[in-house]
């Protein structure tokens, strides 16, 4: 099926400055360059087991992670007109406080420069120059010693022409997103109206999936298929319970993977809140959230369409009150074809197929989800 304008809001890249920084490190996370083959990213402590030969640790990160020309070729192959690129996990959360501000500025400037080169077509080495447009979600120096440093970077980002928001993991400053120390950051995002792209990062313990034995047997299926969605759901629910959305009613958040399990569990979450005796409404002394989860989902939350099925899309549309809060994404360069000779990515074509099926006969809704909503929400030129 031919598509209207397509904008990919969930697509990752490790820009040159980020790769250089990871290569300079000797502790997790770091990048190791084996004698042959692709660089390997050691992202988890469990990946850095001395019993594992170093050339086999972590995961390979081929050119699709860092070479923007590969990203553009992928876009052309799959009919994508515009991408909003962002770092993949682990972002900058691990940096020493003294290094956080410098690296955040360097990497965000790197993202801005990449987007500017592609948009203007000034880099002759890049394919599709002038035809594919890039924007970016920037990274934050969350380990900085003073929240003012983070706020300062948010305000600086507003001056960069191709930055349209920031990406953040579910741990925030290390204590979750209900941490009151995040309030200055929420306030700065609300003031600048930069969108927060919230993305999970292995936030549930391996014991939840059966421990190392199950992980070795089943690979990443359990943490990616179940852990990531639950992590996102827990993080947003903690924000709701701590009244973040009461204090910052104009905060705008895009949730990865269609909000995890939030669309399906929203009613249960709301019911549990209404029946909680610790909250003032139940006779307790803890101020519970004043706004319902349904209101928050319709006014503060956007969802990407990275859910791979019609049932998930229907839930995402239902909780958002319509199709105008849903945006197309690919999660590139993750979930590539297992066959090296295969050009089309099943992970992407599956999403296209689900969207086409779900919005069959609804041309306006289809156009909005594939690109129109992103253009409107992110003010893409």
Automatic annotation (TrEMBL):
> What do the Gene Ontology cellular component annotations say?
cytosol
Instruction: Give this protein's Gene Ontology molecular function annotations.
Output: carboxy-lyase activity; hydrolase activity
Domain Amidohydrolase-related residue range list: 134-380
- Gene3D superfamilies per UniProt: Metal-dependent hydrolases
- InterPro entries reported for this sequence: ACMSD, Amidohydro-rel, Metal_Hydrolase
Q: Keywords assigned by UniProt?
A: Decarboxylase, Lyase
**GO BP:** secondary metabolic process
Q: Which family does it belong to?
A: Belongs to the metallo-dependent hydrolases superfamily.
Q: What is this protein called?
A: Amidohydrolase-related domain-containing protein
Organism this protein belongs to: Penicillium olsonii
């Amino acid at each position: 099926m031919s598509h209207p304008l397509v904008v990919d809001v969930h697509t990752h890249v490790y820009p040159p400055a980020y790769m250089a920084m990871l290569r300079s490190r000797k502790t997790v996370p770091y990048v190791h360059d084996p004698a042959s083959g692709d660089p390997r990213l050691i992202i988890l402590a469990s990946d850095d087991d001395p019993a594992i030969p170093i050339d086999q640790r972590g995961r390979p990160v081929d050119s699709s992670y860092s070479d923007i020309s590969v990203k553009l070729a992928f876009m052309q192959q799959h009919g994508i007109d515009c991408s909003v690129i962002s770092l993949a996990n682990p972002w900058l959360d691990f940096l020493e406080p003294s290094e956080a501000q410098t690296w955040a500025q360097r990497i965000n400037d790197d993202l801005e420069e990449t987007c500017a080169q592609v948009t203007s077509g000034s880099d002759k080495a890049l394919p599709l120059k002038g035809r594919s447009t890039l924007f970016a979600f920037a990274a934050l120096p969350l380990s900085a010693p003073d929240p003012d440093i983070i706020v300062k970077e948010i305000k600086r980002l507003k001056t960069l022409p191709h930055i349209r928001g920031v990406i953040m993991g579910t741990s925030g400053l290390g204590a979750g997103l209900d941490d009151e120390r995040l309030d200055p950051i929420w306030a700065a995002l609300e003031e600048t109206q930069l969108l927060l792209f919230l993305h999970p990062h292995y936030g549930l313990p391996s014991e939840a999936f059966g421990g190392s034995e199950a992980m070795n047997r089943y690979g990443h299926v359990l943490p990616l298929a179940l852990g990531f969605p639950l992590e996102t759901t827990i993080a947003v629910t903690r924000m709701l319970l701590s009244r973040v959305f009461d204090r910052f009613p104009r905060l705008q958040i895009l949730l990865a993977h269609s909000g995890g399990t939030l669309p399906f569990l929203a009613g249960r979450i709301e019911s549990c809140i209404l029946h909680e005796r610790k909250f003032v409404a139940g006779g307790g002394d803890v101020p519970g959230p004043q706004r319902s989860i349904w209101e928050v989902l319709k006014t503060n939350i956007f969802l990407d369409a990275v859910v791979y099925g019609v049932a998930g899309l229907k839930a995402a549309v239902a909780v958002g009150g319509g199709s105008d809060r849903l945006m197309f994404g690919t999660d590139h360069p993750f979930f590539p074809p297992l066959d090296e000779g295969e050009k089309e990515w099943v992970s992407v074509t599956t999403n296209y197929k689900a969207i086409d099926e779900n919005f069959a006969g609804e041309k306006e809704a289809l156009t909005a989800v594939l690109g129109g909503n992103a253009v409107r929400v992110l003010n893409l030129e």
